[in-house]
Amino acid sequence: MVGIFGGLSKLRKPIVIFLLITIVAVSSLGGNASANGGPADTVPYVTGGGIHFIQKKNVTLKREDLSFVIVGDRVRINVAYTLANRGKADKVRFAFPVDYYEQEYGCAPNCDFKASDFRIVDGSQPLKVTDELIKMPVNRIIDDTYIVQKASRVYRTAISFAKNETKIIKVGYTVNAGYVDWMNPYSLIDRVGEREFNYDLAPAGYWGNGKVDKLNITFDYRDIVKKGGSLRKLTLPYGQASPEGIFKVELKQADLKSLGDLKFKYEYEDYLKSKQIASSRISPKLVSGIKASSELGSRYGASRLLDGSLSTTWAEGSKGQGIGETVTIELKKNTSLAELRVMNGYMKSKETYGNNARAKEILVESLIRYSANEDYQWVSDTKYLEDKPYDAKAVADGNLYSLSDQLAYYEGEVKTIKLTIRDTYPGTKYEDTCLSELLLLY
After folding, report:
1. What CA–CA distance (Å, rounded) separates 305 from 404?
2. Angle 389-340-226 (CA atoms, 0-180°, nearest 5)?
3. Which end of the chain is more exposed for a tag (fewer CB within 10 A), N or C?
4. Hey, what's the signal peptide range on this chain (predicted)?
């Protein structure tokens, strides 16, 4: 895989993890992939070397059980081949290349190009596996992405068969799904891309007549569903998906070379953005003070805006819906901020959210300076907030991204922030306007 973590600049660079992992008969193009192994011979090492698969007609593939377990950006692949030798005792060389296609941004910090926990097991006996890294220049566009080179980590072993023996060979490893995340010039929070990988079924078609009696495929993306994500693409024409996030396919007499690549795309954007927000909140010690022009008693004081809880709120205490009421935050010297976000309304429950008023328009005034050599200056902007429906799952998950709205983006030292309510959405029971939390991000 290739990881690019560029620094902040006027033109923000992409954060890239671009992964193509594949087993190739001669060469393979396509999306991010991880794929099958087959009987192999080695092409003489000339300009980078390669793998050439050979048809092993006397060993048939009776069954292939293939599973993918997706946890965040990590994909665990486990495959079990049930192989039947129909002839005399034999020893088969087995190759499993894992190919990484490197973009122009480089490969750091993952330049070893290795899958995690790679293993090949014969029954219950681990096989001795050697590996070799082969690099070849590419310098062309693949799937709308300019690729500089292909780095192939080739895992090799030997499988011994007794006469007329049937055995199970298991291969397991973990890789990162491929993705491109772009730094956002107007927000601390990255523009998060889809996660994807491919799996090439074709190499297993070099056993026997190229067909497998029974092919079982399981995609387990329950972790993504739990994180509020979804499956965007799966190329298999058959199968059943459960609401929990398991997709199963069963095929008989499957022609593996014809099936080719499985393509899988998914997203869990809100979760990743929420996690980024959580890790970017400034220390409460950097806040020297917070006060409001009015409060509905100490239980609903301004300090509740920075207590990290969605079960508490600041409620203004003026007559009416709080038009003109203010919240002022003072920060300690040399405190730099990147972004200010607000969690609008009283989010403790659906009832408290609907019963109380929510801000519709907020004037944001900030006292900032862009360098130590400059004077502080006031900058102001008016933000209009959408009246979002109450999202019980997002509240239960603590999804800071989907529950919040951006109020300001900063590039400098911030001394004072003053928020003024300009307009509100009325509550169904009370006039009090509530804000649950302010997110000060660095």
Report:
1. 13
2. 45
3. C
4. none
Nearest CA to 433 out of 289, 272, 283, 322 is that of 322
Give φ, ψ of 204 to 5 degrees.
-70, -10
Dihedral sign, Cα of residue 351, residue 357, residue 360, residue 362: negative
Contact predicate 15/1, CB 8 Å:
no
Percent above pLDDT 90 for the chain: 65
User: Cα separation of 397 and 16, whole Å?
Assistant: 27
Nearest Cα to Cα of residue 120 among 83, 94, 82: 94
- Specify the amino acid at residue 25: A
Q: 190: pLDDT confidence band, cut at 50, 70 and 90?
A: confident
Is the model's pTM score more than 0.85?
no
Rounded Cα distance between 178 and 1, Å, is: 8
Which domains are assigned to the chain? 25-275 (2.60.40.3680), 281-441 (2.60.120.260)
Look at 50-54, 127-131, 303-307, 345-349 and tell me which has the smallest mean pLDDT. 50-54
What is the residue whose two structure tokens read 């989907």? 402
Rounded distance between C-alpha atoms, residue 31 and residue 142, angstroms: 8
* Residue 65, Cβ density class (10 Å: 0-12 exposed, 13-18 middle, ≥19 buried): middle
**What are 59-84's pLDDT values in tens digits?**
999 999 999 999 999 999 999 999 99
Q: Which DSSP helix (H) or strand (E) runs through 383?
A: strand 377-384
CA distance readout (Å), 77 to 65, 73, 170, 177? 11, 13, 11, 11
- In DSSP terms, which residues pair with 350 in a beta bridge? none
Dihedral of CA atoms 153, 78, 70, 129 in degrees, nearest 10, equals -30
d(CA 416, CA 213): 70
Quick one: average pLDDT of 354-371?
Answer: 97
